[in-house]
Amino acid sequence: MEALPFDPLPAPENGGCSREEIYSSLSSEMQEFVSREENHHILDYICRLPTEEIGFPEFYPRISRAMRSIKHPNLIYPAGKGLAVHIYPDKEDVRNYYIPIEPCLFQKLDSKLEEVEKLLIDVIHDQDITTKDPEEKKETPRKSSGKKPVK
Question: How many CB atoms lie within 10 A of CB 47?
Answer without folding.
Answer: 22
